[in-house]
Amino acid sequence: RYYAICCQPLVYRNKMTPLRIAVMLGGCWVIPTFISFLPIMQGWNSIGIIDLIQQRQFNKASNSTYCIFMVNKPYAITCSVVAFYIPFLLMVLAYYRIYVTAREHARQIRVLQRAGAPTDDRQHHPDQHSTHRMKTETKAAKTLCIIMGCFCLCWAPFFITNIVDPFINYTVPGKLWTAFLWLGYINSGLNPFLYAFLNKSFRRAFLIILCCGDERYRRPSILGQTVPCSTTTINGSTHVLR
Questions:
Q1: Is the residue at 48 inside a domain?
Q2: Which of 42, 81, 198, 208 is placed for a possible disulfide with 143 were both Cys, Cβ 3.0 to 4.6 Å?
Q3: Does pLDDT of 26 surpass 90?
Q4: What 3-state DSSP class applies to 1?
């Protein structure tokens, strides 16, 4: 969403229709179903390693049977690539694009400020709306970078181990597996706190949702009263000048 707002602000509202959002959210559930639930229920993850799984299920010392979950090499690679490595690559590309766009916005704002500067020697005051918008974009980008960093740090050990383990004859200790898995689960618990404490806009959005759209939590316009404005185009982007 932030990528669309940052890089395609003029067409965002037309493209992001409720139906399209519903399809995207549905995809977030359908894709995991096809890479996790369906293959595991069909036993595709255990093809070729059934004997090894049966050996580990039975503990001779305690004469008991355990539930052992192991994956073969094809499934480990496919699942990890689809669930982690491809999303990670897409996020890196998106954040690079956001970074480039943010720098371009900053340059265009400086050009607009110089274009509207007074001809006399009086001190020029920058456009407060443009400055505020740039600060907001920068802070939001930093917030999302922190969230992305936490996601990568929490889930990378698990997905790296998930691919390496089948190639080293499944010698990764069980306790290490458990630690890496719970580290990934912890990331899901961190997200609400990261969103809420790092960015005021997210905090306000949560309050609006929880309080059923209470007007007290809606942000007042930073422009105040409507002021006359004109538009100008720089490098194909349309900007509003007060």
A1: yes
A2: 198
A3: yes
A4: coil
Q: Which residues pair with 240 in a beta bridge?
A: 231
What does the alpha-carbon distance between residue 70 and residue 137 come to, in Å, rounded to a whole number? 44
Q: Is residue 197 part of a domain?
A: yes
Q: What are all long-range contacts of 193-202, with beta carbons under 8 Å and residues at least 24 apart? A: 194/143, 194/146, 194/147, 194/150, 195/143, 195/147, 198/142, 198/143, 198/146, 198/147, 199/139, 199/140, 199/143, 201/136, 201/140, 202/143
Grade residue 78 by pLDDT with cuts at 50, 70 and 90: very high
Average of per-residue pLDDT across 109-136: 62
81 in any annotated domain: yes
Q: What is the spatial distance between Cα 174 and Cα 176, in angstroms, rounded to a whole number?
A: 5
Residue linked to tokens 């961190």? 190
| DSSP code at position 224 | -
35: phi then psi, degrees, rounded to nearest 5: -100, -10
In CATH, what number is assigned to the domain containing residue 1?
Answer: 1.20.1070.10
Residue 9 domain flag: yes
Closest to 172 (Cα-Cα) out of 85, 107, 76: 76
Q: DSSP label at 216? A: G
Return d(Cα 178, Cα 180) in angstroms, integer: 6
Contact 65, 57 (CB under 8 A): yes
Number of domains in the chain: 1
